[in-house]
Amino acid sequence: MSRIGRVPIKVPEGVNVEIGNDTVKVSGPKGTLAQDYRNEVEIKLEDGFCLVTRRVETKQAKALHGLYRKLVSNMMEGVSKGFTRVLLVNGVGYRAEVNENTLTLNLGYSNPIEYPVKDGIQINVEGNNKIVVSSHDRQLLGQTCAEIRSFRPPEPYKGKGIRYENEVVRRKIGKTGVK
Question: What is the DSSP letter of 112?
Fold first, then answer.
């Protein structure tokens, strides 16, 4: 049995869970999220806990068991607490700023990059080089951070670019200049 899938999910205070035939809808103080699920698994609500169980014992059902349990857990955490990721901008002259619903990035290109902020995402810039992205939807948050990082990924020689706060960039030595 899936070790992740069999752990019951405690429903936090202020979070409402609605389970339909093939959809789970979770709403809380930060927002509302919905997730469709396949009929190989069953999601039930019992005594303040949400349980995910398998209906059939196939390899596909075993994989989906842990997946849907984690997705529902992330939904509950997102609508109650929210998620945050931090991006760091490294490089001489590289900077970021937020104007209303647009993130402006100066990353050494001839023109600045204008990134429109999606609904459900909040972006704050601390100083000139620390971008704090937060959302109640973990999947949307990860996709947004990946798109921002893709404008200038960190390069291994000087370490310039946009990287996650906890990311380690392996540095290369480069040319030695021997004649």
Answer: P
